[in-house]
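Subject: design request, 143 residues
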């Protein structure tokens, strides 16, 4: 499997299907892609004792990292073979505390893709669908 010849969607689908390994960040921040289509992806994640702030709550960086993955992978899923991307800014808004030891879901959606810039939004929700955090990211695209 030559990744340089695969579209972003093909790469993301191969990861979801277990044909290629997920990035190592998915070990640090326990998350896995559970659904992908062109321009959209959903991750399931779960914070644990490794992700707590000094007050014992889930650190905001957990939500930010999961949302960064959701926005960036939404962009990746729309790129042609040989193209790459890098996040150039990420704006996160925390709405509710992220629960510890409970599944949360991050859904990223591509908003706009031009030759060199992509914009994507993402939401982080709990099992009941309550909004925990939102994000908007800009990514530089290299073709």
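Subject: RE: design request

Done. Sequence follows.
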């Amino acid at each position: 499997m030559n990744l340089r010849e695969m579209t972003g969607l093909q790469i993301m689908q191969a990861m979801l299907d277990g044909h290629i390994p997920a990035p190592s960040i998915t070990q640090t921040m326990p998350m896995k892609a559970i659904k992908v289509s062109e321009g959209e992806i959903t991750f399931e994640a779960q914070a644990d004792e490794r992700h707590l702030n000094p007050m014992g709550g889930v650190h905001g960086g957990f939500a930010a990292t999961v949302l960064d993955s959701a926005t960036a992978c939404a962009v990746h899923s729309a790129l042609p073979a040989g193209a790459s991307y890098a996040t150039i800014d990420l704006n996160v808004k925390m709405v509710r505390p992220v629960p510890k030891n409970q599944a949360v879901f991050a859904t990223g959606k591509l908003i706009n893709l031009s030759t060199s810039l992509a914009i994507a939004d993402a939401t982080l929700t709990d099992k009941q669908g309550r909004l925990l955090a939102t994000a908007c990211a800009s990514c530089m695209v290299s073709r």
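Residues 85 and 135 are 17 Å apart (CA to CA).
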